[in-house]
Amino acid sequence: MERPKILVTGAAGYIGTHTAVELIGAGYGVVIVDDLSNSDESAVDGVRQITGRDVAFIRADCNDMEALARVFEQNEFSGVIHFAASKAVGESVEEPLKYYRNNVGSFVNVLELMKRHGVPNMVFSSSATVYGQPDVLPATEATPRKPATSPYGNTKQVCEDILRDSVAAYPGLNGISLRYFNPIGAHPSALIGELPKGVPNNLVPFITQTAAGIREELSVFGDDYNTEDGTALRDYIDVVDLAKAHVVAVGRMIDGGMKERYEVFNIGTGKPVSVLELVNTFERVNGVKVPYKIVGRRAGDVESVWADTTLANTELGWQAEKTLEETLRTAWNWEKHIRGL
Ligand code: UD1
Questions:
Q1: DSSP letter, residue 28
Q2: Out of 126, 192, 227, 329, which residue is the most buried by the measure of CB atoms under 10 Å away?
Q3: Which residue's CA is minimally distant from atom 20 of ligand 1?
Q4: Active site amino acids
Q5: Which residue, judged by its Cα, is nearest atom 22 of ligand 1?
Q6: What is the pTM of this model?
Q7: How far out from the chain centre does Cα 30 lie?
Q8: Measured between alpha carbons, how far is 186 from 242 in angstroms, rounded to an integer?
Q9: Residue located nearest, by CA, to atom 30 of ligand 1
Q10: Is residue 2 over pLDDT 70?
């Protein structure tokens, strides 16, 4: 028997494609909605190739209420996983309205249509950015959120609150916010992965492009942090592991396993890794050089953040499986695949 059908918004993007693959692998039906504003339809083809399924794809902006309403009229969904959002911190400072429209406005639209059509389950893509620099590490779900330092970060907090308040108000609605730490890597098939447009903001795409000779050298932002090697610490989570967390979350909702109707989970490895440790590991496992120079700190960066994943481990029965070495190999294989190396 076919498992229930899930609407996955923004699923032509990096985390969305990997999640669509895992959902289909777990037997779910998947409908993808994406406006392709920061992605390419070839990513959906990658999902089709890996799964051997003719996955439904509708090109639409979640701000286009009419187009989105048609999707809800034509399908009976058991849940929605909402990835559709903009995610560049710097751009969000320059263009806050774009971020409030794309991230908050579109989320309200989707929830409105879920309410109208009685679709009960929402998994929201949140971020460890809501913790800012925690006073105590690792961060648990009870760690207080810090005031956001960018409109992007604020949209994640606001959307978490919108989901919490909506669940409280509408008896038919359940919600889970997954707070992702730093997603990296690609599918082992190298058929899907991260496709940043222009110069990458994030560390791993910059490393893979530097190794491929597209960028001259990596700038390491700051070596004067209060850490062992002076570079900042993050919790790098494999994108396939992260995708699987969504499958488990949506299954928990559909199967009636939630403890509360609104829940929050950290999704990370629980292991802090420094920027230099990541660069060195990448070079070692892939046998390539990544030229780098140390430059000043990047505005808005925190020193250290990593997850306490106990709640996801015990409640979701989920845990990160891939080692950093394995993940960095998949990141390099993907870069080589798209560059024809
Ligand atoms: C950033 C965002 C976060 C967002 C996430 C995914 C901030 C403060 N946080 O996380 O909200 O959810 O991206 O888009 O912007 N680094 C370098 N050189 C580079 C790039 C990065 O040294 O060229 C360092 C950074 O200073 C940081 C680490 O690598 O210490 C990770 O950076 P990045 O991949 O951009 O992720 P975050 O900044 O943690």
A1: -
A2: 192
A3: 203
A4: 152
A5: 220
A6: 0.98
A7: 18
A8: 11
A9: 232
A10: no
Encoding tokens for residue 314? 């015990």
Q: Once rounded to an integer, what is the mean pLDDT over residues 245-268?
A: 97
Q: Which atom of ligand 1 is nearest to the CA of 204?
A: 34
CB-CB neighbours of 3 under 10 Å: 15
Average pLDDT over residues 253-276: 97
Ligand 1 center from residue 237 Cα (angstroms): 13
Mapped onto helix, strand or coil, the DSSP state of residue 96 is helix
Torsion region of 3: left, alpha or beta (phi above 0 gives left; psi -120 to 50 gives alpha): beta
Ligand 1 centre to CA of 298 (Å) is 9
Pairing of strands 292-295, 182-184: unpaired
Name residues contacting ligand 1 (CB within 6 A). Answer: 87, 89, 127, 129, 153, 182, 201-203, 206, 218-221, 232, 234, 275, 298, 300-301
What is the distance in A from the centroid of ligand 1 to the CA of 203? 6
Q: Is 293 exposed, middle or buried (0-12, 13-18, 19+ CB in 10 A)?
A: exposed
Q: Please state, in angstroms and rounded to a whole number, the distance separating the CA atoms of residues 64 and 50.
A: 30
pLDDT at position 1: 56
Q: Report d(CA 252, CA 275) in Å as an integer.
A: 35
Given this model, what pLDDT does residue 3 score?
75
The minimum-distance atom of ligand 1 relative to the CA of 206 is 23
Distance 234 CA to ligand 1 centre (A): 9
Examine the pLDDT at 230 and tell me if it is beyond 80: yes
% of the chain beyond a pLDDT of 70: 99
Query: Contact, 140 vs 311, CB < 8 A?
Result: yes
- Closest to 24 (Cα-Cα) out of 250, 341, 263, 296: 250
Which atom of ligand 1 lies nearest, measured to the CA of 149? Answer: 8
pLDDT confidence of 236, banded at 50, 70, 90? very high
The pLDDT value given to residue 93: 96
Q: Indicate the length of the chain as a whole number.
A: 341
Q: Tell me which residue of 291, 268, 129, 285 sits closest to 206, measured CA to CA.
A: 291
